[in-house]
Design brief:
By secondary structure, the chain is mainly beta. The chain contains 12 helices and 50 strands. It has a 22-stranded antiparallel barrel. It has a 5-stranded mixed beta sheet with strand order 3-6-7-4-5. The chain has a 4-stranded antiparallel beta sheet with strand order 15-14-22-21. It starts with a helix and ends with a strand. It comes from Massilia aquatica. This is TonB-dependent receptor. It is found in: Cell outer membrane. It is a multi-pass membrane protein.
Length: about 900
Amino acid sequence: MIEKTLCAAIRRLCAGGALLGAAALAAPAQAQAPAPAGASGDMQKVEIVGTSIRRRLAAQTALPITSLRADDFAKQGLSTVQEVLATIPMNQTSTGASQSVGSGTGGRATADLRGLGGDKTLVLLNGRRLANHPFFADTVDLNIIPVAALERVEVLRDGASAIYGSDAIGGVINFVTKRSYRGMEASVEAYQPAGSGGGDEQRINFTGGWGDLATDGYNLLGVADFHRQSSLTATDRDFARTGVRPERGLNQTSGTTFPANFYSEKGISGNPSFATGCRPPYSIPNLSGAPNCRFDSTQFVDLIPLTRQETFLGRFSKKIGADHTGTLEYLHSRSTNEARVAPPPLAGIGLTMTSTSPFYPGAGITPAVAGLTGEPLDVSWRPLVTGKREGLDVSLTDRLLGGMEGSFGGWDYNLGLSYAVGRARSAFTDGYVVDARIIEGVGNGLLNPFGEQTSAGNDYLRQSLLQGEYRRAKIKSGAIDFKASRELMTLPAGPLGFALGGEFRRDEADYRVNRALASQASSSGAADSQDQSGSRNIGAVFTELNVPLLKDLEVNLAARYDDYTDFGHSFNPKVALRWQPTKQVLLRGSFNKGFRAPTLYDLHGPQTTTNTSNSWNDPVLCPGGKAAPGANPNISCDQQQNIRSGGNSQVRPERSRTYSAGIVLEPTDKLTLSADYWDIRLKDQISELAEESIFGDYQKYQNLYSYNAARTRLDYVLAIIQNLGEVKTRGVDLGVLWRLQRGALGNFTLGVDGTYVDRYDYQNERNGPFTVNAGRFADATPVFRWRHNATLGWTRGPVNETLSNRYLSGYDDQPDENGVVPGRVGHYSTWSLAGTYTASQKVSVTAGVKNLLDDDPPFTVQSTTFQQGYDPRYTDPLGRTFYVRATYKF
């Protein structure tokens, strides 16, 4: 009941306005009438995201908040937290399971409000921090959120560094779990794509609650949730099955292939199978006219890897007297991710064949190649018989929290003590090979890189497979926090609210690499990684003051002081204004400053060398796509190059300023309209320089290129974490919520929640030129001009129906290396339909269809992910998907 009243008050007094999000629109909030005089003393005090002051419902402040109810997004078939956040238009990008394919993310899922980066979106659980994912230590892995335990999700779309801390520049996402639950229930969900292949999902969860805080003085809550999604391969979807579509300008292939390409010391390069057309469908002739073959590695990748999440949340709450409640909470989560990419590319590792090999071209088994006279050959080979490279990532999170809250001496207080540990590990499970054994096998004539293997060769390759755990990481975070609030006095216009609080936290991060294993496989991306570790202490104090200047005008002032043992201190103020001149109109605005210190990974993350996402011409050894004298075109031309990334102890903090202004109109009780303008400026952005920038301007970034002593091979380009330049972005959030007149046909609601980005410009270095990103693909990502989520809901008796539309506007596609834009990427619009039948208080069933019209993702030539033909960061490759969910309450 408190939740419903709160949501209504937020809507009525515009502390969230109409921007309730698609999931909340299916069931309308009821208008909250102004409290009669003298009634405020009986109203429940609550605290919402964005403020530390607990106040009565009739006096809630105005904040740009989106609220999503868990019951509603469950009915819409949103099976993961990442899917839920994808319905929030201001969440520009997201990282999920698809991005773990070949990229070493550990399978984590992240949010990214305003497109500023996931490290500037603060994720909370019940108002408190969680441990970040160990591999990058910059964002919370959304996979650890206990979906089945959620009551609602609150999204503060305004910067909140003054309240929550330095990493709230883009906004705050607060996942709120059930506070008190009594009874037992079990839910079963199943998702089945209409298209062939995998991608099906299953979920089962159990919830049990005993005792009632109000009557029994205690409550025990336990939630267990299990989710699994099978893998979907590229060959299961026509739009993503290949990286070769020359008629659309897509030609993403590798120069490391089977049969192997070679290069001789006389400058001759080629492939013995080129004359007969290579070996399609994987190996195809080079479209540039060079006498070698290219490899379509896209056909081997997963669009969606096999994933599993298991989460448990247990909480015991006990009333202590009439005014205090103690809580003990434990969260455990385990997430696994099994991803597959093409067989290992073995190039530039000293793989040499001599004329003594029976497989040397012209020796009787392999076709001869004109010009070869027995000189040694440098071979670029991909041994298909070893199979796809498969990796396993396992992430575990444990958090123990003890808390006390209540009222004492006129103060509302909340005190917490928490300890969280995050662990992650990565392992080779199949397909990776020991480089030294392959070099030896080719050198002694046992292995045939140009054709089929002998039985002895197959046995040798099987014995050359590399398996085992090659890296692990741990992050520990212990914290104590407190906050207290009260009404200091009653001014003529209302009560003066005051809050203060503090936090002390110690973070420790440790990265370990099994070099004995990782160093044996150049294709692992961790062959030269080093162990790293770091720690820091963080102390903070903050205060907040809510001043009613006039009856309908109030100002909120906040400030926070943070002190880092490794970066000094920072002071961040915030001011917000709320004016409601009439019952139907509310005006609001805010200004705040932000500060984000580098994470422990930014500073101490291990530097590793791996392949670039795209294929590039080495600007020195292959200028203009033509190999320079003495350069091996198989590793220098149109090939994935080596890129070295990782932490940098010289990184400085980021700083930001944000201001916003909005208006909310409610001409009738049935219609709410809102518009909120926001403007964000970020300085000294912490990030890696995109490979597109490095290879796109050699003259500017030549200091980042590292060659061997003879300058015959590019060892790597350096793209470690550093301070780039500024980011400037602005736009407007728009919302409509229309509660149609109730009648014999039932209750209808119509809602639209949208974000328009007017500007998104950034610099790749301080004082450098600005790159325009809004409405176009720049460097590594696009920024959508317009995104919306629209929902039409209908309820009649035990039946609820929801029709929803998710829309992303089109943009200019990724330019080629000459800066030429190949065309436009079309808009992405999907419709979904769901219905819920509540048969009784114990049984309810939901059935629906996601992507009702079975629309494919729009085509793009983007090359920043392993998947090709579409962009998995914003679109869903599954197509039309049917789902059913059944819940039984005991």
